[in-house]
Automatic annotation (TrEMBL):
InterPro entries: EmrE-like (IPR037185), Small_drug/metabolite_transptr (IPR000390). The chain crosses the membrane at residues 51-71, 78-96, 102-119. Keywords: Cell membrane, Membrane, Transmembrane, Transmembrane helix. This is EamA family transporter. The keyword Transmembrane helix applies. It is found in: Cell membrane. It is a multi-pass membrane protein. It comes from Rubrivivax benzoatilyticus. It comes from the Bacteria.
Length: 121
């Protein structure tokens, strides 16, 4: 049970990283930088945006946490749990006003069914 909790924390960190990266890439500073010809300065401006930088930090932390899962479980058991990230992402996306369509929800349900089957094996 402890390993499952560690896996969920890692997945939640990955989802948080996605939303942080999205916030950064949608921000005025990054959009302005991307509107100019691409140079090293463009890359610097994007990577130093607080949300982009924070997103990468959160991803890194999630990867370190994931190492705890891999130390206890087979990859074939652990990795399908990453599919739960789709559930978290769609739920949070809905809460923040993203368009969540019926086909998208059905796809997430199918992913959950697959994760359940793998978990039972």
């Amino acid at each position: 049970m402890k390993t499952l909790l560690i896996a969920i924390v890692s997945i939640a960190l990955s989802v948080a990283a996605q939303f942080s990266l999205k916030a950064g890439m949608s921000g005025d500073g990054v959009r302005a930088a991307l509107a100019l010809p691409y140079t090293f300065r463009t890359l610097f401006d994007v990577l130093t945006d607080k949300y982009v930088f924070g997103g990468f930090l959160i991803y890194g932390l999630g990867a370190v946490v994931w190492l705890g899962v891999l130390s206890k479980w087979d990859v074939s058991k652990a990795y399908p749990l990453v599919g739960l990230g789709f559930v978290f992402t769609v739920a949070i996306g809905f809460l923040v006003g993203e368009q969540v369509t019926i086909p998208r929800v059905i796809g997430v349900v199918l992913i959950c069914a697959g994760v359940f089957l793998v978990g039972k094996s």
